[in-house]
Amino acid sequence: MALSKKPVTGMKDILPAEMQVRDYVMSVIKETYGDFGFTSVETPCVEHIENLSNKQGGENEKLIFKILKRGEKLNLETAQSEADLVDGGLRYDLTVPLVRYYSNNAAQLPTPFKALQMGNVWRADRPQRGRYRQFMQCDIDIFGEASNLAEIELILATTTTLTKLGFTGFQIRINDRRILKAMAAYAGFSEESYDNVFITLDKMDKIGIDGVKEELLKDGYSSQQCDKYLELFTRMESARDAVTFVSEQLTEYLDSEVMASFREIIDSVNATKADSFELVFDPTLVRGMSYYTGTIFEVAMPQFGGSCGGGGRYDKMVGNFTGNSVPACGFSIGFERIILLLMESGFQVPSKASKVAYLIEKGVEGQRLCEIIAKAQEARKEGAKVLVVRMNKNKKFQKDQLMQEGYQEFVEFYKDPLK
Questions:
Q1: I need a surface site. Which of 121, 239, 347, 353 has the fewest CB within 10 A?
Q2: How far apart are CA 286 and CA 295, in angstroms?
């Protein structure tokens, strides 16, 4: 049986041109987040299966690549359920591993702790444009900061990074899980039905308000509940100030401090931002993870036609590991989608150093070859990036390929020094 040269479905080989862009983007991310005081950390790609399957990861828990037990622990003959076979899984995001990391190492970390983590994650998802089964995530998280300073810093750090990468005109959509719950309570939905209602609400941008009503009615909710609920969204659209409308309409169901803090996040970001983006209150924003407890946000990129990142506050998650809740908030950039947009736009990595290719004719050897290599070494010492390769027969095609990798200058060396 012949070996397959293609990558596994949903995964891909990364060619040099894209790898240059990825390396550049990662360097911009690390440098910019470093300017905001975030520190790089790393966690294992394999997690305990019980950590990944704790009913906090939403739909992602159905997409785990699970790992069989090894050696004597794997007994196929006596196994009666999956739990007898599996003890680990590939991480489906970076948040669960980071919370475990913080819970295990908190005594050695500062408070608040500002973490930057970049790494691959795996989901057994249906591959499509900008979505793979193995993909890079880039997260920043703040532990130990209960105030909205965490949200403000996360939004400013993320938008500053996106702007440095050349993106403008995008939106940061912002909402709060407590606002979502207050609206559901106002309409008369029971608390145990909230998650189901929110899953339907999350489809608003695809099926519209009538479609949401139709699905809620199919799920058995009363027409009175649905009308009262959806009327809130209609009235918010026409309100001069949607945040003020929510504050006034949901007084009975929502703490005034929640809305004051929410307002302060919006006002602070708008007052201090130096970049071309819009911060928008979106009452239909849900975010799929059930571990979110407060503010949630998402990056809406018009070039992609969808989300290119998101996050929020998850104050109770550390408590699942330690028994003691620690305030936590994070923001993740959609790294793969950012790369996709840059590649489709023909983005070229800016380089301060010149990139020169030395093309050496076949047959150049001995002292002549040493002289050329010594010349390349001297140019590298002076800061140039020098590629030394043998000259192909089809020199034009070779140069075209090298130009795609950013080489603009070519020096040709022949057996005859006078050539």
A1: 353
A2: 10
From the centroid of its chain, how far is CA 308? 7
Q: Count CB neighbours of 17 within 10 A.
A: 15
String of DSSP letters for 283-314: TT---S-TT--SEEEEEEETTTTEEEEEEEE-
Environment class of 145 (CB within 10 Å of its CB; exposed 0-12, middle 13-18, buried 19+):
buried
CA 343 to chain CA centroid, nearest Å: 17
DSSP alpha helix (H) spans, 273-413: 319-322, 335-344, 366-381, 395-404
State the alpha helices, DSSP H only, in 57-111: 95-105
pLDDT band at 238 (very low <50, low <70, confident <90, very high): confident
pTM, 2 dp? 0.87
The amino acid sitting at 351 is S
| Nearest-angstrom CA–CA distance, 328 and 319 | 11
The answer, yes or no, to whether residue 78 has pLDDT greater than 90, is no
Q: What are the residues facing 385 on neighbouring strands?
A: 355
The C-alpha atoms of residue 342 and residue 344 are separated, in whole angstroms, by 6
> Per residue in 119-173, pLDDT tens?
999 999 888 876 789 999 999 999 999 999 999 999 999 999 999 999 988 999 9
**What pLDDT, on a 0 to 100 scale, did the predictor assign at position 306?**
76
Pair 148, 265: CB distance under 8 Å? yes
* Strands laid side by side in the 66-68 sheet: 46-48, 86-90, 66-68
SS3 of 146, please? coil
* Per-residue CA distances from 89 to 54, 70, 72, 346 (Å): 13, 13, 19, 37
Phi, psi of 292 (to 5 degrees): -70, 135
Residues in Cβ contact with 173 at an 8 Å cutoff, skipping those fewer than 6 apart: 280, 281, 282, 285, 297, 298, 299, 300
Residues 6+ apart with CB under 8 A from 237: none
